[in-house]
Amino acid sequence: MNLRDKPDLRDRLAAEYVLGTLRGHARRRFEGHLHGDAALRRLVAQWQERLLPMGELAGARQPHRRVWRGIARRLDLDQAKPGWRFWRIDSLNFWRALGGLSTLATLLLVAVLAASVLERPQADYSATLADDQAQPVLLLSGDSSRGTLRVQPVGKLSLAADKSLQLWAVPRQGNPRSLGILAVPGPTTFDLNSAALGTDVAMLAVSLEPRGGSTDPNGPSGPILYKGNWVRFL
After folding, report:
1. Contacts (Cβ under 8 Å, ≥6 apart) of 109
2. Taking 90 as the threshold, does the pLDDT of residue 169 lie above it?
3. How many H helices and E strands in the chain?
4. Do both 140 and 206 map to the same domain?
5. Angle at CA of residue 15, ends 144 and 107, nearest 5°
6. 176 phi, psi to nearest 5 deg
């Protein structure tokens, strides 16, 4: 199958690959395409930037006992008697088991992350706002059915007492539209309406402003710190 001429399919497969929902032969075949397609690798990296920060919003989840039983069965932990012999550093079984456990732990993390993302049923819009070094700073989740927009810092976000961070929808033409002031350092919830989701919106941006917001009625009065674009989940 030639993916180069199918942009929609490329995008969907890249997203499923990052989420971990692309499995078995389909996943191995996609990884084969990755080796010779630099553009496809960049597309996967873009989806990683969009989706992986959502893990910051996911609460802790206890894996089902059958997951641990499966790990023990694949590593023959039930047959490791006496127990201390399994952990001897000069044991070939130790290094084999350690490598297998690391792989399984990685797969488990991806599965938990994918489940956490997929179990957020209402968010049909998402955006990751990054700084000038392309580091994710803010994660936006839009729920068009409820009309809510949630803004969550990816990491620690500090701000001087006399400053504010203001969120903007930047249209292709005309003045930027203010969506509100962020409640740093915690999450902030705004109304999600046509000002944020209009078809003319070319970019989302956050500016550094005096406390209370921009002094310019036509747009930001301070520098743009973070920016990004909407991604819609169909």
Report:
1. none
2. yes
3. 7, 9
4. yes
5. 115
6. -60, 150
